[in-house]
């Protein structure tokens, strides 16, 4: 880092400078030494920086300018659906009637908020083709775990505790096997065939009396639609298992098909992906789960229901897996998704799928001339390229991703899925204009030319960023988290 360009806040500190003015204390002073165990009392004052208010404002403003987000640039992360977050959603979420309510207040005093939640559940039921939806899970990964726990509870209720194995494709999202393990179940891998789809022969060989579920998304992680999904559902159901739908890729099929129509028994959704909630940065997400009628009694409680003209929470659910999150879900994110759905309407959501698929195929066909395309058929919302051709010239996919930083672009997902060597996974989403796509395409083509003409320059990228290339292994395993 160039300190002259961006000194650390501790380096700006000057003894005696302040940026606060506190009112006189209007309560009795208390000696903490008499109240707390000495173990928890500081022996010396914390080494906090001393700055003026102006210095602090400039410091954090400069930091914010170095942050990259979907509001500042193109974010082609495959499998993440990093699309625009409409500001109308933010305005609605900040309305006092929503932002000032409290989860402990009586249900009769928050009927408007509960009606919104109920309407959102109903909308998601229609979009997914599921019988009932719960908004409780806090994010997609927790939605996965919740769905698997319900499937496990169903099998146990049916006296089939031996069903402990969950079949997961070798191209699956990394959260899938992790969620299976967290749910106390076992992962069984099913292979991908030459077309990038689930190998039905291999699937038939791994299902059995111990199968709890098949867990996959459609379109799959390669951005390809599983055309044999009905047959896959028949195979798994015939063996006594259930189908779990990872909703990360729902952005490609809204309005055209539904997981429920494909034969899925459980689905989780990522409202912060498909339905434009803010995504990333460790903030709140939302991962509602929808289930078939057979699994409704196992939903997390309480379940929001409508009784006459009132909306109430039903706690009398003896088969429920229990509460999976305090209160009733991440209300603000759910509200943003509800606003988006109501703004778009049925036809608008269908257009989302059309433009997402159009944008992805446009980029894929432009880039396949220079980069290897492992699977040649049309994709859905995302596609996977391979940098094998460039690797033969000594330049890795990682190097090209670092070079993209010099052009002001966030790189796509790289080295995932694992079954594609030197993978670059690109998802443009429907909200990007053709001019933006063309700019990214031309940059990728330019980098490919640089690989041929000056590979060392690409290998040493990035060149223009504040922080140069780091030792990423050390940075991940031995991070320096405090100022020395």
TrEMBL record:
The keyword Oxidoreductase is annotated on this UniProt entry: yes
Catalysed reactions, as listed in the record: N(6)-[(R)-lipoyl]-L-lysyl-[glycine-cleavage complex H protein] + glycine + H(+) = N(6)-[(R)-S(8)-aminomethyldihydrolipoyl]-L-lysyl-[glycine-cleavage complex H protein] + CO2
Keyword Iron-sulfur: no
Record PTM N6-(pyridoxal phosphate)lysine, positions in chain: 273
Keywords, alphabetical: Oxidoreductase, Pyridoxal phosphate
Glycine cleavage system P-protein N-terminal domain boundaries: 51-300
Signal sequence interval, chain numbering: none
Cofactor(s) this protein cannot do without: pyridoxal 5'-phosphate
Annotated GO CC locations: cytosol; glycine cleavage complex
Annotated Glycine dehydrogenase C-terminal domain residues: 353-453
Origin superkingdom: Bacteria
Task performed by this protein: The glycine cleavage system catalyzes the degradation of glycine. The P protein binds the alpha-amino group of glycine through its pyridoxal phosphate cofactor; CO(2) is released and the remaining methylamine moiety is then transferred to the lipoamide cofactor of the H protein.
Subunit structure: The glycine cleavage system is composed of four proteins: P, T, L and H. In this organism, the P 'protein' is a heterodimer of two subunits.
Family under the similarity heading: Belongs to the GcvP family. C-terminal subunit subfamily.
Protein name (Swiss-Prot/TrEMBL): Probable glycine dehydrogenase (decarboxylating) subunit 2
The organism of origin for this protein: Paraliobacillus quinghaiensis
